[in-house]
Amino acid sequence: MTSQVSMTVLRLQAEDVQTLKDGINFKKNPEDGKCYIIYKAKDKLRACRNQCKHQGGLFIKDIEDMDGRTVRCTKHYWKLNVATMEYVNPPDSFMQDELEAVLSDTDGSLELVELNPPDPWTTEPREAQELHAGEITLTYITHACMELKAGNKKMMFDPWLTGPAFARGWWLLHEPPSDAMDRLCQADLIYISHMHSDHLSYPTLRQLSKKRPDIPIYVGNTSRPVFWYLEKSGVNLTNVNVVPFGVWQNVDDHLRFMILMDGVHPEMDTCLIAEYKGHMILNTVDCTRPNNGRLPHGVDVMMSDFAGGASGFPMTFHGGKYTESWKADFIKNERKKLLNYKTQLVKSLQPKIYCPFAGYFTEAHPSDRYIKETNNKNSPVDLNDSIRKSCPNTLTWTPLPGSVLDLALVLKDPSNRSAITEPPNITKIYKDTWDFDLYVDELNASISAEIFKHKSWIQHYYNWAGFKGYNLVIRVIETDDDFKPLRGGYDYLVDFMGLSFPDTRPEREHAYEEIKNRVGVMRHVVLNGLLWDDLYIGFNNRMSRDPDVYHHK
Ligand code: FES
């Protein structure tokens, strides 16, 4: 079985993108002569190969179609609605394989991306066998951490059981079951979906490594390695396995799993299909477009994120349009869109059971009260209500920490109340203490590091980061916890055009950003060569920018 790969099959420059008309566009790749169809709607682009599913015929515009959404095959006259990617003639027959249309924020170009093979789980198919009670159970632990017991194997997903994520910005909402760490230590294998610290939790792995340094951990072969920081972290894990995308990994005779990439962030995000005796569990975790939107239909269990709010935008921005009411409207609309998207996804895939998870974090530290009050998230209950209305055949599950779902019992009788075991009534569900000082002090220990006594660290650091040749000037201000400039803290300019550190802004026209960073987090990030995700996703900075555009290179 060969590994799944992601390929750009057509690239259009910004000028060509601007000439795309509303509705159907036919395009040809001048390099290989292959043809594509791009459908432009008000707020999105969809694309596919110009190749009929029947016998590979070429599509042309369907002159009978008044809405401008349908193309007609020149061979035997099948018809495809490119707005939905459904074949309308023969009706209710096939879906066209869609390409990912990736529009660049920076240069306005468009890439059509294809995953090959598109549906690798169909290789070596296994018939679903009858299960007996207790043969497959899912136990929700916390956030994105779920324990799958299949036969006599236990697999744990994304264990974040202790400590914060994104420096000091995210804290666990749920109290993990009291035996969670023991369960983790006893797992047969662990899947970690991506490098973000609410999935790859070094405080959790540090504890685990003391008991089971050789526990098998599986990650996808992303171009940005999940465990890039392992050596430096000092955590001793000796059995990390990087596996190719789209290839079954056999755990035993009955259990196997496959890691798939995300269509939008293939360099970083992954999702998982675990299969036991032909029963599939699909965990799309945080993927924006898991496996480019092509996923197995009718799986036994599907779980995905639901909450939103996993970014500093727009809460940490100020100035210009970023008033409180603009932010509130934006957040409300975005959350609504996410809820609709998840509902539609579940509706199209028709899993037997759906479980929202991977959204149970809180901005618990008192210094982040503003974020906590503004960063409203979707409720799993609201999502499940919406799903039940759209997909009456899907059973929804909103688990509490320690809730156990017995798949065999649900499949046999979805109304069987004993198929799901809830934790005892006295169980503490929500965390109310987080050991803030332990973790914040650890970060703040970086403040007094010797290197920061010398202003030259600034040049060393940005030279090491190596970003330049971009017409952007930033002003970075070190602050206290409340984003007040710190006495004795650094306040400096970086000009990324030629990577210089001027005292005043240059005369030429340039994009400008002012970034206030909490000193402890900033220095911890600098000292350890970490990603600025800790600052940005962890709400540890405040930003204003002129012009108000997203910079990316
Ligand atoms: S090849 Fe398209 S209808 Fe036959």
Automatic annotation (TrEMBL):
One of the record's GO molecular function terms: 2 iron, 2 sulfur cluster binding
Gene3D superfamilies referenced in this protein's UniProt entry, alphabetically: Ribonuclease Z/Hydroxyacylglutathione hydrolase-like, Rieske [2Fe-2S] iron-sulphur domain
EC number(s) per entry: 1.14.18.2
Keyword Iron: yes
SUPFAM superfamilies from the UniProt entry: ISP domain (SSF50022), Metallo-hydrolase/oxidoreductase (SSF56281)
Recorded catalytic activity of this chain's protein: CMP-N-acetyl-beta-neuraminate + 2 Fe(II)-[cytochrome b5] + O2 + 2 H(+) = CMP-N-glycoloyl-beta-neuraminate + 2 Fe(III)-[cytochrome b5] + H2O
Pathway annotation from the record: Amino-sugar metabolism; N-acetylneuraminate metabolism
GO BP terms: CMP-N-acetylneuraminate metabolic process; N-acetylneuraminate metabolic process
CDD domains named in the record: Rieske_CMP_Neu5Ac_hydrolase_N (cd03473)
Transmembrane segment boundaries: none
Ranges of residues in domain Rieske: 12-110
Keyword list, A-Z: 2Fe-2S, Electron transport, Iron, Iron-sulfur, Metal-binding, Oxidoreductase, Transport
Broad EC category: oxidoreductase
Cellular component per GO, a single term: cytoplasm
UniProt xrefs under Pfam families: Lactamase_B_3, Rieske
Family indicated by similarity: Belongs to the CMP-Neu5Ac hydroxylase family.
Function in brief: Sialic acids are components of carbohydrate chains of glycoconjugates and are involved in cell-cell recognition and cell-pathogen interactions. Catalyzes the conversion of CMP-N-acetylneuraminic acid (CMP-Neu5Ac) into its hydroxylated derivative CMP-N-glycolylneuraminic acid (CMP-Neu5Gc), a sialic acid abundantly expressed at the surface of many cells.
Protein name as catalogued: Cytidine monophosphate-N-acetylneuraminic acid hydroxylase
